[in-house]
Structure formats: C-alpha cells, structure tokens
Amino acid sequence: MGSRASTLLRDEELEEIKKETGFSHSQITRLYSRFTSLDKGENGTLSREDFQRIPELAINPLGDRIINAFFPEGEDQVNFRGFMRTLAHFRPIEDNEKSKDVNGPEPLNSRSNKLHFAFRLYDLDKDDKISRDELLQVLRMMVGVNISDEQLGSIADRTIQEADQDGDSAISFTEFVLEKVDVEQKMSIRFLH
Amino acid sequence: MEGAELAGKILSTWLTLVLGLILLPSAFGVSLGISEIYMKILVKTLEWATIRIEKGVPKESVLKNSASVGIIQRDESPMEKGLSGLRGRDFELSDVFYFSKKGLEAIVEDEVTQRFSSEELVSWNLLTRTNINFQYISLRLTMVWVLGVIVRYCVLLPLRVTLAFIGISLLVIGTTLVGQLPDGSLKNWLSELVHLTCCRICVRALSGTIHYHNKQYRPQKGGICVANHTSPIDVLILTTDGCYAMVGQVHGGLMGIIQRAMVKACPHVWFERSEMKDRHLVTKRLKEHIADKKKLPILIFPEGTCINNTSVMMFKKGSFEIGGTIHPVAIKYNPQFGDAFWNSSKYNMVSYLLRMMTSWAIVCDVWYMPPMSREEGEDAVQFANRVKSAIAVQGGLTELPWDGGLKRAKVKDTFKEEQQKNYSKMIVGNGSL
C-alpha cells in the first residue's frame, strides 16, 4: 500500500542516498513518495511505462531520451537509488560545493556531470562521440515534421563543423564544452528544502 | 430459540430507532440536530488532535513534510527565454538543456498525475489511511484513534449500511411504482418526492453535511447544470437539494438496477456504451430534452472523470454545444473529514462506498452560480473554458488545461507536435515555415 511508503525507506539507505546525491533528508522523503506514486506496479522500481504516464513528459520532444537516461545499459527497471542518482544531476551547485577538495569524488551535480547528461542524450550508441546521424536523430525529435531533411542536414553539418576540432566529423565530449553557456543555471532545478 | 428471539428483538429495536430517528425526519426534510452535535464533537476532536500532533513533532518537520509544500519550484519561463535566443537564431547543441530541464521537472512534480490520486492532508485526521507522515505520536492520541476506530466501524458503519440499504431499496421500489402511473403532474411530483427522500437518506448514510450557497441561482427547468466531478456521490449531494435529469452511460450491477428503476419515474437520459460514441445522437437527445421546458434540468459533469477535489480539468465541449442556459455549480469537499475522491483505478464502487461509510463524515460546500450562456462569436471550446474558470474560482480549485481522460488514455500527439512546431520556428525563423 502506498501509505506505508515512507516507512519502507530504511534509514541506512536514506543516509547512503544523502551522501551520494547531496539531497537533504526531507527532499529524499518527498521524492520517495513521488517515486512510489509513479510506481504503478508497486514493486519498488519504475519501468519506462511508469515514466510515460506523466503527460507533461510524454509531450516533451525529447521525452524518450530523457527517460532513457534513467535506465542503465540493458535494463528496463530503475530503483529508487538509481532514480535519485539521475535526479541529482539537476541539483543546483551550492556555494559550499564549489570549493570542495579536488581529491574527493566529483559530485553528481558538477558542471561536467551536467554536461555529460546532455551529451548522453545525443550519444545513443555510447561511443563517446556524437555522429552526424545521432545529431540528426535528436534534431528530428525536436522539430518533428516541420523542417525538411535537406535543411536539417545542413544544420547538422554546420553544427559539427563548428564544434569539431580533430576533424573526425563527429563531436567528442571534449569538443562538447559549450563554454559560453550557463550550464549551472540551465541544467538545474530549484529543489525546495 | 432464545438466542434467535433475542437477535430478533435487537434487530427490530435497531430498525425502529433508525426509522424513527433518521428515516422519518429525512422523508420530511427536517433535522433533529443529532448530526450537528456529532459534527461539533468531531471538529473539536480533530482540533485537539492537530494541537497534539504539532506538540509531539517539531514544528519545522511538520511544515517540511506537509503536502502544501511542493518538491520543486518550477522554472516557468517560456521556450524563447529558456533557449536564450531570439526567433530565427541557429540551432545550438545546448538546446537540449531546455527540454531536459522541463522533462526532469515533470518527473519530479507534474500538474496532472497528482490530481488522479488522493489529495494529501496538511494535518492528520485520525484515519489510518491518511497517516503517511504521522506514526506514533503520543499515548493519548493513539487512544483517541482506537476509540475512533471503534466508533467508526462498530457504530457508524452498521448504521450507515442499514441506511444506505434502505435508501437504495426505497429508491428502486419507489421509482418502479411511480413509473406505473400515467404521465402527468402527479407522477412528476411523486417522482421528485421519492428522489429527494431517498437521496436525503443516502446522504445521511454518509453523515453528509452540505452547505448550499446562493440558492437563488439553483438550476432551472430546461437548463443544463454543469459541475466539477470528484465522486459518484456528487449526484447525491446535488439531488438532495433538487431533482435533475441525469445523463450517463448504462452501467451493470447495482448501478444498473438503480438506473433502470429511476428512468421509469423520471426522464433521465441513459446511453448504451455503443450509443455514447455517437456524438450526434447524444447531442440530439439532449437537445430534445432541454427543448421541453417542463423537464428537469440536465446534470452533466463535463470533465468526464473524477478529479481529486483540488483542481478542475478540461471541460469537454459536448455539453456546451447543445445550447440553452448553463447553470454552473462548484462542489468542494472538506478533506479533513474524509476523502471523497473516487480513485476508480484503485477501488471499485463497493469498496469506495465502504471507505466513505467508515470515514468521519462527508462535508462539502456547493455553490450555485449565476447562469451563463454562449456569447456571440464564442465557440463551444471557449465557452467551456469560461465556465470552467468560473467554477474553479468559486470553488477555490486549480484550473488545468489538461484532459481528465489522461487518467486512462495516453496524451495526444498534437501536444508534442505543437512543441516541435514552436521550436522549429525558433531555429529557422518565420520565413521558411
């Protein structure tokens, strides 16, 4: 039953998630109750269908790719821990986190991890390169039927040309730097405390 | 033998009490004031419980856990701003940021799906089913809760089941008998009497306390009454204050028996499932109904599904194409005494009714609103939206553009296409599209 939700989340698990993701205790509790309400199968994991049932996500042109980001390679279920790990990419970077020691593990919400999230939306075959084909697929998802193949092709060519530095006609993660973009702001959601 | 005799005696005393104290008063529409006393005690108890809970739990965490606070603060800026560019700018790799953020926000918190599950309460109302954040707080509170369980299940439940049983059987028998009479004013009068009496009994079976506001705007004959929809008992709530011709699909089971009996006495409009799809037929039959000014106002719930008492969703335009005067009605339940929302994908009708009968009470406000009609140059969709806004404002409900049908169906592709079109315009400019 849904009403038992918060009791099922063990304290140790909550502590671990807190450490890994940086979310606060009450944020985790609230997100857990969201997780259980999305979990229509009531088996402690979410499937792709569970995500697709959110109308505002279903109408998102990149909805399918975003949902994909929650599922590790070859799996079709995600548990609460994995769910939180993906959400953590969108936690804003707080002031005290910026000056963190460089030796510790990089927090999930770092600028580079945020960029990685976006990069993986393009890089479907996970070869750490955005090929022309992969770029075209994402473009097509975003524009639908409104732009001709020819026009879209020239957009893809121009984009690759601008970003490509080593001449392999693809965009690697090092070329996907987006220096001028305020990644911290654009890839952050204001989670309430 | 003695045991049987004793049981018989208890049963007959029980029925006499029910008859004398509840049935007869409801038949005449008077109140003995018992339910008022019950409500007063209830309000006091819940107030006391709230104070205890606040004492027992540090204030801060109560606030944090309460549902009134969302999880995130959404970035409502439009696409143009989110993409940081003007129309006609070029595609940039960072454009996916905007869609990712929107998508993630929807995963964490969305406007629609939460409306299809029970509303969360700010403070616990001593029902176990709503106890999400409050577990053991104090001994006294637990004792009161145990007492509450005993009262609800051992006193109220049997009483309410008896009442509901009597109410429903009276309705079926009464309407069937009245249905034998020839059409005429006597039949109409008797039919209304039966409907009203039985609804009053059934409302008492739920300890319903209903406050009607602006009675001068009560829906008139020959009009269409539209209301927001939380539960099947909306019908009871409204009929207690005046009869309506109902529109709906023919059901099976208990509902079917009631429907078939009712239609004999009163011209309700029931459709077979197959007929429901034929929009022209539906419109035609409704038009015929309102053309006859002597017939009762039609009652329609244009959302087409139950929403959890916090918002009003899209009004289907069908009811607004028929013409005639629309009498909007806003219904808002007080969630403190029991959750009236019917989560039909989780509970069937009977278990829903049992939940209702083991709640504290059903308390709700009904606002009759000034009649509205379609303005010149306004199409049915615009008119539907105008009525929806009016109801949302009056009932203090959130207004949502989404279709309540999303509870079961997938969202239409046109919404996604709309987004794609907007985005395309931005990266290619107006000229080429």
TrEMBL record, chain A:
Superkingdom of origin: Eukaryota
Principal subcellular localization: membrane
Keyword S-adenosyl-L-methionine in annotation: no
GO MF annotations in UniProt: calcium ion binding; calcium-dependent protein binding; sodium:proton antiporter activity
Keywords: Calcium, Cell membrane, Cytoplasm, Lipoprotein, Membrane, Metal-binding, Myristate, Nucleus, Phosphoprotein, Protein transport, Repeat, Transport
Annotated EF-hand domain residues: 26-61, 110-145
SMART domains reported for this sequence: EFh (SM00054)
ATP-binding found in the keyword field: no
Localization annotation: Cell membrane; Cytoplasm; Nucleus
GO biological process terms on file: membrane docking; negative regulation of calcineurin-NFAT signaling cascade; negative regulation of protein import into nucleus; positive regulation of phospholipid biosynthetic process; protein transport; regulation of intracellular pH
InterPro entries reported for this sequence: Calcineurin_B_homologous, EF-hand-dom_pair, EF_Hand_1_Ca_BS, EF_hand_dom
Gene Ontology cellular component list: cytoplasm; membrane raft; nucleus; plasma membrane; transporter complex
Gene3D superfamilies membership: EF-hand (1.10.238.10)
Name of one Pfam family that matches: EF-hand_7
Protein family (similarity comment): Belongs to the calcineurin regulatory subunit family. CHP subfamily.
Name of the protein: Calcineurin like EF-hand protein 1
Source organism per UniProt: Canis lupus familiaris
Gene field: CHP1
TrEMBL record, chain B:
Domain Phospholipid/glycerol acyltransferase: 223-334
Database matches in CDD domains: LPLAT_LPCAT1-like
Chief location category: endoplasmic reticulum
Signal peptide: none
Gene Ontology annotations of biological process type: glycerol-3-phosphate metabolic process; phospholipid biosynthetic process; regulation of TOR signaling; triglyceride biosynthetic process
UniProt keyword annotation of Transferase present: yes
Domain of life assignment: Eukaryota
Entry keyword set: Acyltransferase, Endoplasmic reticulum, Lipid biosynthesis, Lipid metabolism, Membrane, Phospholipid biosynthesis, Phospholipid metabolism, Transferase, Transmembrane, Transmembrane helix
GO MF entries: 1-acylglycerol-3-phosphate O-acyltransferase activity; glycerol-3-phosphate O-acyltransferase activity
Localisation per UniProt entry: Endoplasmic reticulum membrane
Pathway: Phospholipid metabolism; CDP-diacylglycerol biosynthesis; CDP-diacylglycerol from sn-glycerol 3-phosphate: step 1/3; Lipid metabolism; Glycerolipid metabolism; triacylglycerol biosynthesis
Pfam entry (one): Acyltransferase
A single Gene Ontology CC term: endoplasmic reticulum membrane
Keyword hit for Phosphoprotein: no
Membrane topology: Multi-pass membrane protein
TM segment ranges: 12-34, 161-181
Family as reported in the entry's similarity comment: Belongs to the 1-acyl-sn-glycerol-3-phosphate acyltransferase family.
Name this polypeptide is given: Glycerol-3-phosphate acyltransferase 3
